[in-house]
Amino acid sequence: MLERITDFMSHPELIIKANQLEDPVERFVSVTAISCQAGTLSPRRTFPCKMGIRRRYRGILCGRTISHHPPISVYYYASPENNLRIVGDLLPKSKFLGNSAATLMQGEINVSFTNRPGEEYLITMPNVYARGILFGTMLMELGDVATVKCSKLDLICSLEFKVKGYFTGSYNGISGKIKRISTGEVLYEISGKWSNEIYISKKGNNKEVYFDVKTARIHPKIVAPEDQQEWNESRRLWSKLTAALKVNNQSLATEEKSKVEDAQRLKSREREEKGTTHVSRYFEPNGDGFDLRLKNISSDPQVAKSQIENFIFNTPAPPS
Question: According to the UniProt record, where is the region Disordered (predicted)?
Answer without folding.
Answer: 256-287
